[in-house]
Structures are given as C-alpha cells and as structure tokens.
Design brief:
With 195 residues, this protein is α/β, with parallel strands linked by helices. The chain is built from eight helices and six strands.
C-alpha cells in the first residue's frame, strides 16, 4: 500500500495530477481511493488530496503515515511535514506561489532552502524540482504539473509505472497540448533520475 498526500494552492493542477495518479493506478489493476480538500482553491488557497494505492478501506492519511508527499509549492510541502516519517519521499516544486500578504509587504515568505532543510531533518528523500523553469522549457508554464508528475515517476517510491502515467496524461490533457505535456513529463523524469 502507498499513501500519497498531494498539496499545493488553487490553480496549480493538484486535482489534475491526483486524477492522473489515481486513474493510472486503477489502469494498472491496483485498488485506489482518493479524497480531496479544496479549501479556498479558487482564490489561491490550499488544496490537498489524499490517495491510497493498494487499499480500499480509506483514503485518509494520518500524521506520520505518508509514503509520498507530492507538493506543488514549497511552503505547502513544509506544511505537510506532520504527515511524513523518516521513509517518506518528498517531491516538490522549488517555485513559491507568493500570497497577497507577502506581495503587499505585510509578511515575508520563508527561505525556501530553510524549509527544505527542515524537511531533510525528517527524511533525506527530497526531490526538489524547479518545475516552472522546466515547464517553460517544455513550452508553457501551465505544464509544471506534468513536470512534477514526471519527477514523481522518476522516484523508486512511485506506485505506478511511467507508461501508465503517460497513457492517462495523453488521454486527459487537451489534444493540442499533448506534445508539450509529454515533453514536460520527460524533463521532470530526467531531472529526478539525475538527482
């Protein structure tokens, strides 16, 4: 059984990536259950999905139970730390989504490397990807979620094959964006395998 916590902010593709992961797991013949918490998703608020692959009882992931924390934003990766244990694999974007209170100078965004160092104190299994940079290399910023899916596929902990993830990705994305999303996925995969 693999317990995955997917986190990010509204508009980053958290629900999209969770759907790809869940459908790929089902296509491979695994039991998979998913739950979503939208929060203030439409206003840039927190979005979280729990996915359990290989179980049918519950999709809830308790504190210390996550096998994978799949984060689209560094601060959200840090906020999910309570779900981690020493064996948890983190796959996260290094690109912050700056909240309004930070952009108007009321608060300061934490040092990203400092957040990652705190994660490393719990587990050394951290794959931090500049998803925005690789997405632009693939052709569009909106493919950052495909970059991160590729990075997850490049880890030993990913519970589904890269082939099934690609199969579902091709089917779900709009036809005119298939090539760009596949390129983004491959860039993320190569990055994870190198690091």
């Amino acid at each position: 059984m693999t317990r995955i916590v997917v986190v990010g902010v509204g508009g980053q593709g958290v629900l999209f990536a969770s759907k790809v992961l869940s459908e790929a797991a089902l296509a491979e013949g695994h039991n998979a259950v998913m739950s979503e918490v939208h929060g203030m998703a439409q206003r840039g608020g927190v979005v979280m999905c729990n996915i359990c692959v290989g179980c049918i009882e519950s999709s809830l992931v308790g504190d210390g139970e996550a096998d994978i924390i799949f984060a689209f934003e560094p601060m959200e990766a840090y906020r999910a730390l309570a779900k981690a244990n020493k064996g948890t694999r983190f796959v996260t974007s290094t690109s912050p989504v700056v909240p309004v209170v930070v952009s108007i100078g009321k608060m300061k965004y934490p040092d990203v490397e400092g957040l990652f160092n705190e994660i490393r104190e719990i587990t050394p299994k951290l794959t931090a990807v500049n998803a925005d940079k690789l997405a632009l290399e693939a052709g569009s910023y909106v493919t950052a979620n495909s970059v991160l899916l590729g990075a997850l596929a490049g880890t030993a902990e990913c519970p589904v094959s890269k082939e099934k993830l690609l199969e579902v990705l091709k089917r779900i994305v709009p036809p005119k964006t298939v090539e760009m999303n596949l390129k983004a996925f491959e860039l993320g995969l190569k990055y994870a395998k190198r690091h």
